[in-house]
Every structure is written in structure tokens, then in C-alpha cells.
Amino acid sequence: VSEPVAFQEFVLARRRALLRTAWLLTGDWHTAEDLVQTALMRCYPHWQRIASDNPDAYLRKAIVNAHASSWRRRWHGERPTADLPDLPGSDEYDAADSRRLLIAVLRLLPARQRAVVVLRYYEDLTEADTAAALGCSVGTVKSQAAKALATLRARGIELTDAEQRDHREVIP
Amino acid sequence: MTLFDLQRVVPEPPDDLLDLRALESRIRRRQLTRRLAAAATTVAVVVGTVIGGIAITGSTSPRPLSPVSHLDGRLVFGQDTTQVTKTNLLADTSLYSVDPTAGQTQRLTHEADGIDFAVASPDGRRIAYSQETYGYGPAGHPTHINGAYVHVANADGSDDQRIYSCPTSSCEELVWSPDSERLLINGDHVLGPDGRVRRLCVGHCSVRSTTYDASWSPDGQRLAFQYWKDVPLDNGRSGPAGVSTVQAIGVMNADGSRPELITDQDCTAAHVTACSSDTTPVWSPDGDSIAFTRQPLSYLLPNNSLGEPMVLGPGRIDIIRPDGSALRQLVDCGVYCRVWSMSWSPTGRHLAYLTEDERGRYNVPPWSLTIIDSQTGERHSRPLAFVTEEMTPDYVWAPSGMHIAVGGRAGNGSRPTGIYVADVEAGELGQFRMLVPTGLPPITWLSRANH
Questions:
Q1: Shortest Cα distance from B4 to chain A (angstroms)?
Q2: Which of B17, B27, B411 is facing A41, going by the closest CB pair?
Q3: B76-95 residues touching A, CB cutoff 8 A
Q4: Residues 6+ apart with CB under 8 A from B15
Q5: How far apart are the C-alpha atoms of B131 and B94, rounded to whole Å?
Q6: Does the pLDDT value for residue B82 go beyond 70?
Q7: Which of B247, B290, B329, B354 is deepest in the core (most CB within 10 A)?
Q8: Distance from CA of A7 to the nearest CA of B (A)
Q9: A118 touches chain B (CB under 8 A)
Q10: What pLDDT score was predicted for residue B152?
Q11: pLDDT of residue B188
Q12: What are B340's strand-pairing partners?
């Protein structure tokens, strides 16, 4: 490994964030770990260039691309289900139930829509940055986000965006 | 309505994930594999030049095909009727056919919803296709899948009938029997000549024993199928702790009776290196062989002897006789390579398959189409330069075996690749030429006999 310091420093500093993003895409920690490992492995040969630019953006894109490759493999693929866990009754939901519901609902979305949701509503990327990460147009991000949100709303779920989050934190 | 803040809901990852030493080991192995692959490519080109052995052909520069001669029958393909590929959902994809020689295109289906799989009957008279219907949001965009159905229509699109409602969200596997009288649906239902669809049962029809990727014997009397079974190994990926699901190849009568596994293995921790997951059987046209993809189970284990946590696979193609004898390995394209969509040439001498190879992702197209001689193992590969990483290619043999058509299912927000055609001569794949710029999978080929 020829650039151990910079690469290792990045992995140590960002591993939790990368794993959390991958968890949202995959729904379990083992697959998330595989995804992040694959993304890091692919970025490593180009690390000098990546490190001098925006490594977070490169890694996000690599994770999304690795996920796009993995869901095509039918025998490791997910099988959508119509049976969702019960919705929690109030805003004071139990964390474990919420995670279970969240993953079940995200699995309803096609992989691309799921990626848009994760980048826009977890990573708080702008539409332009999301488009750059996914290699598509801003219009596609908008339409994909709209479809994903419509699917979630049909299941009684609304996502908080960055603006709402900031607003909520200002008001006690 | 429940309000979710993703940033608050996502849990913290366990501390033991993403071990740096494991990552470094994986990076070193990848570097070594890439160096070995580069060296092997150099050797193969030199050997191929000197003694006419394995030939690895270069990337192509497609040129328009208008018109061409010697192409047989009509090619059926998908096309977005709005001319814009919009979503992962296949809304507005309809089937068209084109006479490759005259270039005349004809629309075959007229409903608005999406078509994701189509296959022509061997006699060229009918087309079976699967269709998804969608629910639409207030903005008029499709938001979710309402149902999935199988249709059968005449080759010109007339007499289109919905014959089956799929219990899952898609009907991916449609296979005509050799006599064009029966249609296998999702590997476990059969449409008979009487127009009724019946369930095939293997074992006791339990969830685990459903079949997928089944293949007719050329006499139409038997089926090769993929059987899912639980084995007492924990690969950390599926099923309850301590149990993994693997696949084995079986054969049975076409009515579902007398199922028998022909690649069943003793999958225990003591025999893990001899255990494999066997998938996608395809019966040879002469009836003597069944080719299938094989992934050694040790590849799937998180802590195998190589310390490799995950591979792309299955990277092997093996061939076995229908009675379970004469098993032999035909191809091993490597740990980082995966075999897709294997099929026999109509003559039965060659097999075609797609490979997705992780090694070359940053240098060459990730997808290649290979034709291999099933007897000598001589193979010819051609990178699919027009199919990007985010697309999924599909291909089909012409009924004569003299051509192959390829297209890429467009990734979200990207344009269709178009449909390309290449000649096949003596097992060698020629240059790809563009046939339909706006075409996309599904693609299938109607024989000329009935047109």
C-alpha cells in the first residue's frame, strides 16, 4: 500500500459515516461493510487524485455505483414484499421499530430512487450534487425524488429535509 | 403521517466493521489479480497470434446497419413510446419488430404500461411477454407496481391475451417448450395447449422448493431446474444463523413428477470446499448435456481460506449429462468475474454468455459477450463498449445461429444503448453494428419460417 497515511486517515475518520450511508442503501451491516470495502478498494488506485479533490463525494458515488452493481445480481438480490411492519402510533416511536420500518419502506423503492432519497434526505446533498453523484441530470433527481416521496407518502411516511431539520432545531 | 428524520433514525455501526487489515488485504489481492489478468491477456494475445488459440478481440466502433443482408426473421425489441427513458419502472415500453434486411419497423403492443421480458415461440408464430402495470401519482408519474401479468400474442401483435397474473411483482422467466405448445412461467407454472396455467410442484410445493431458471429438454418431455435448499453452513448472508441457502441442479418430468437432483452435494462445514451453488441450467439442443453456472460455496464465506469476504461470481460454467454423470468444468473466469445469461447456440456446438468483470472497470467496458466451443473450450470475447456499468445488457441468438443481437437496459436517466447485431461465424463473434438506435431490451428473434 503506497499511500498508507492519507488513505488510512480518511478511512478511520470517515468509516462510520460511510457505513451509515451504505446501511441505508442495503439494510444490513454486513452488506453495508462489503459495499464500503468495495468502494474504497475501487478508489484506492486513484487515491492521490481523489484525496486532493473531494474524497467524500467520490466515495459516495463509488458506494452508490457498487450498490447499483450488487442489486442486479439476482441471487443476492432483495425480494420486495407487500407486508410492511405496522406503523408506529405516535411521533414518540421506538427506535428499533422505526429502523425496521424504514428499511422495509426503503426496500419498496427501486434502487435508483432509494439512492436519491439517501443522498438528498440523509446526506443533505443539493439536487445538483445528488445528480453529480448519480451521474444523471438534475431533472432526473427531481423526478426520482418525487416518485420516491409519493411512494413513501402512500405508506404514511414523510421525510424531513435539511430545511425542516434546521427549522425544528431552532424552535425549542 | 409519520415524520422520519433519516439522520436521527440511522443507527451507529458496530465498532468491529471495516477492519483496516482486512481492507488492506483485499486491496493487495485486487492489485495482484489485476497484474495477473494483464499478464494473462498479453500471453493470450501472443499465443492467439502465433498458434491461433484463444483470441481476445478489441473494443468496437459500431457503425449503422442499413440495410444488411443475410439476417433472418424479424427482431423484436422494446422501445419507450415517449422516446424518453424515464424511470426504473418500465412505463411506456412497448414491443416493436423490425425486418433487419428491409429495415421496416412494426409496433406490436399498444397498451401504455411496461414490458420487461419477451420471448418468441420456436415456430415463430407467437410472442410471450411479461407486463407490469403501475399506480400513478398526482404528477402523472408511475410510483409503484400494481401487478405483473403474462401475455401471449401472435407474432404480428394480434390476438393479444393476458393469460396469467403473477403472484410476485414480476414474471421474469418465460420459456417456450420446443414444440411451441407450452410456456413455462417463472420456472414453476406451465401454460398448456388447453390455455390453462398449472403449477408445477417439486417435493411438496413448499416455498423453498420452487424452481427458477428452468430449461426444457429438446424433446419437451423433461425440465432442468434450479432447486433451492438449506444447508448447515452460515455464510452470513441469507437465512437464519447457521443456515445458508444454496442452489442445486435437478431434472424432472415436464408435469413436475419424478424430480431428481443431479448436482446435489454434501454441504457441511467439513466438505465446504467441495460444495457449490449451482444455478441457471440450460439444456443443450442435442439433449445430451446441461450447462450451468457454478459458484464454489467457499467463495461466499466471509472468512474463507483466502480471507476474501465477497466475490462477484458465479464465475464458472460446468457441463453435466442429464443423468448426473460426466461432470466437467468448461469455464472459470475468475473470482472477480460473473457469468450471466448463458445460452446454447441453435446448432448446439457453442455457448454464449455475458460476463461482468470488476477488474477492468476503470480501463475497459465492464461487460463482455463470449462465445465458447463446448467441446474444445476455445472462446472468443468481445467487450460491449456501448453498455455502461449502470446498464444491464441482454442478447439473443438469431434462429440460424449466424447472428447475435445485443442491447442494454438503460439505467435511470440514461438513453437506450440501441440494438446492435454481430455476425457469428465458426464460433467467432464479428463486429457489432447498430440496428435500432432507440431500441432496448427485451429482445427476442422471430424465425423467418412464418413471415
A1: 5
A2: B27
A3: 86-89
A4: none
A5: 10
A6: no
A7: B247
A8: 10
A9: yes
A10: 93
A11: 79
A12: B354
Peptide bond into B122 cis (omega under 30): no
Task: Enumerate the residues of chain A whose CB falls inside 8 A of the CB of residue B4.
Answer: 98, 102, 157-160
pLDDT averaged over every residue in chain B:
74
Share of chain B above pLDDT 70, in %: 64
CA distance B165 to B178: 24
Rounded CA separation B141/A146 (Å): 9
Pairwise CB contact (< 8 Å): B10 & A87: no
Encode pLDDT of A95-129 as tens digits: 566 677 777 777 777 777 888 898 888 888 888 88
Q: Given pLDDT bands bounded at 50, 70 and 90, which one contains residue B329? A: very high
Distances (CA, A) of B126 to B86, B119, B332: 29, 9, 37
The chain A residue lying nearest B415, using CA atoms, is: A136
Average pLDDT over residues B427-438: 88
Which residues, including other chains, have CB under 8 Å from residue A56's CB and lie 6 or more apart?
A14
Nearest to B310 among A34, A68, A147 (CB): A34
A75–B413 CB contact, under 8 Å: no
The stretch A44-55 carries a mean pLDDT of 79
Give the number of beta-carbon pairs within 8 Å between A and B.
Answer: 161
Give B281's contacts in chain A (Cβ within 8 Å).
none
Per the model's pLDDT, the better-predicted residue between B354 and A104 turns out to be B354
As a whole number, mean pLDDT of residues B102-128 equals 84
DSSP sequence for B141-202: -EEEEEEEEEEEEETTS-S-EEEEE-SSS----EEE-TTSS-EEETTTEEE-TTS-EEE--S
Contact A37 B18 (CB under 8 A): yes
CB–CB contact B361 A42 (8 Å): yes
| ipTM here | 0.71
Q: List the single residue in B with minimal CA-CA distance to A9.
A: B20
- Pick from A20, A41, A75: which is nearest to B13 by CB? A20
Amino acid in the structure at residue A76? H
- Which residues of chain B have a CB within 8 Å of the CB of A153? 1
Which residue, among B412, B444, B450, B448, has the nearest Cα to B109 in the 3D structure? B444
Rounded-to-integer distance, Cα B349 and Cα B370, Å: 14
The Cα of B138 is separated from the nearest Cα of chain A by a number of Å equal to 9
pLDDT at A59 over 50: yes
